[in-house]
Amino acid sequence: MIILGIDPGLAHTGWGIIETKGSVCRARAYGCITTHAAESLDRRLGSIYDGIEQAICTYAPAEVAIEKIFFGENTASAIATAHARGAALVACARAGIVLGEYTPMQIKQAVVGTGSADKRQVIYMVRTILKLDHDPRPDHCADALAAAICHHNAQSTQRLAYKSASVQMLEQLTAQQAYERTLAREHTQAATQAHADYAHGKGNVMNKTRQSRRNSS
């Protein structure tokens, strides 16, 4: 499966493409879309849209992972990131790609093993997981690749959970069918025994007793 990861930002939007086969992940490409403060907002967002659309057209990802916005103390920065994120999402939506959204903490947890990891640790683990011979630069590219890895891990976990649930349901169905077969055999055996008893004059004893009482009265 080919997954596109996106680290949105108005000045720098990182993107990364990974290809997965089973549990193995490999990087196919990555890049960073840079816009400048001197440009108007619409042109900056247009550049982000065009850059993501080009990556989608070139590598045809089946799914996309994008980082959620962290609303910290810098509200202006969060709003700018939200603009960039919106432009990237529109490009993905127009391509009809399955979307996964993850917080920075979720991405760090998936890649490094702790949600408090720093940039250096993320870059190192991305390089290690994807078996790169260099650090992916700039940092936005590493973050985008990390988002794609996080999505792959989340999807793999979901598939395993679904498979486990399916196995459990199958086991329950098998047990229910076995129980119903046992009941059916017991009913059949009881009916056969009753028929045999009746054939040997052992059946309807209660009815005969009631009939004899009526005759004697």
From TrEMBL:
One of its GO terms (molecular function) is hydrolase activity. Its EC number is 3.1.21.10. The active site is at residues 7, 67, 140. It is found in: Cytoplasm. Residues 186-217 are annotated as: Disordered. Keywords: Cytoplasm, DNA damage, DNA recombination, DNA repair, DNA-binding, Endonuclease, Hydrolase, Magnesium, Metal-binding, Nuclease. Pfam families: RuvC (PF02075). It catalyses: Endonucleolytic cleavage at a junction such as a reciprocal single-stranded crossover between two homologous DNA duplexes (Holliday junction). Belongs to the RuvC family. NCBIfam families: PRK00039.2-1 (NF000711), ruvC (TIGR00228). The RuvA-RuvB-RuvC complex processes Holliday junction (HJ) DNA during genetic recombination and DNA repair. Endonuclease that resolves HJ intermediates. Cleaves cruciform DNA by making single-stranded nicks across the HJ at symmetrical positions within the homologous arms, yielding a 5'-phosphate and a 3'-hydroxyl group; requires a central core of homology in the junction. The consensus cleavage sequence is 5'-(A/T)TT(C/G)-3'. Cleavage occurs on the 3'-side of the TT dinucleotide at the point of strand exchange. Homodimer which binds Holliday junction (HJ) DNA. The HJ becomes 2-fold symmetrical on binding to RuvC with unstacked arms; it has a different conformation from HJ DNA in complex with RuvA. In the full resolvosome a probable DNA-RuvA(4)-RuvB(12)-RuvC(2) complex forms which resolves the HJ. This is Crossover junction endodeoxyribonuclease RuvC. It comes from Fannyhessea vaginae PB189-T1-4. The lineage of its organism: Bacteria, Bacillati, Actinomycetota, Coriobacteriia, Coriobacteriales. The gene is ruvC.
